[in-house]
Amino acid sequence: MKVAVLGAGLAGLSAAEELARRGHEVVVLEKESFHGGLATTVKRNGFEYDLGPHRFHTSNREILDFVKKLPGIDFLELNRVSRIRLLDRYFDYPLAFDNVLSTMPLHKGIGMMLSFLLEKVRGLFVPREQESFEGWVLSRFGRGLYELYLAPYNEKLWGIKPSQLSADWASQRITVPSLAGLIKETIAPSRETVRSLVSTFHYPRGGIGEICHGLASAVTELGGSIFFSTEPTALQKTAGGWRIDFENGHILCNKIINTIPVNEYTRLLGDILPPEVHQAASDLKFRALVFLTILLDSDVTPTDHWIYTSEDRYLFNRLSISRNFDSDVRSQVVFE
Q1: Among candidates 214, 211, 234, 213, which has minimal Cα distance to 6?
Q2: What is the pLDDT of residues 311-331, one digit of tens each?
Q3: Considering the domain boundaries, does residue 278 fall inside one?
Q4: Which residues of 247-268 are buried (b: 16+ CB within 10 A; e: fewer)?
């Protein structure tokens, strides 16, 4: 088959490589002048920085071996260092009860423990709903820790009240199931590691964008084509598959793999889709990111890969230090 892939990010290039390796004719269309999407590395005047802190980790050996064998990939293995900036102090992340106990102001620590105990007593008589982020967290950590860090950070990150966030987000991303679990994990850590909180990770020398660069090289070596600065304007059904129009022409293909935003893709499909689908797509909300990168001509003292900031006095959610991912690059700090 001839397959067109919309978008040259990690998903699009991975699909293109797989198809090309299986003998299909592949064409990748990317509206930007570069590949990688949000997982690209900007290189400017000797500085290299990602769009936000990125890392690569997997428990699947086959995937790890596949990425390691991509052209030009030279993986570093790093020990994760991340902290939370809160109350003019730094707390280890993932949270550890002994660190929280030694770093937290005494009155705040006592308040957290009391609110946790009160929540447990309350739950015996009036159990909280478990569908929202707010209900899930309050029932397991109490109002003290919830209002101090968990609620402010997530509302700042998503721009949505915790009562409107799904409990799925909490169960997937919070390291331990409760405050009691935090104490237990500190005393006797379990062998299971939360997917997002691995202590070591891989990082390609030269920036996270090297993974997409390796995938793009593999696609072209297998006979595939990648067209940059090419933005589709319409998709039309044909007898043999699809016609994709863009500013300077069109291509015909049997199949399309889409990795661009859903609302953009539905717009391209036009009358092929009913009005209610277009309405649903236009109603989708997304959270945009703004990055501020400071390029420095000297080393940076902190060894953190990134630091979380939940308080409103900080205009950013997180800062990362690119040099701590790859010591060969010049110093910079990225705020998002």
Answers
A1: 234
A2: 999 999 999 999 999 988 777
A3: yes
A4: eeeebebeebbbbbeeeebbbb
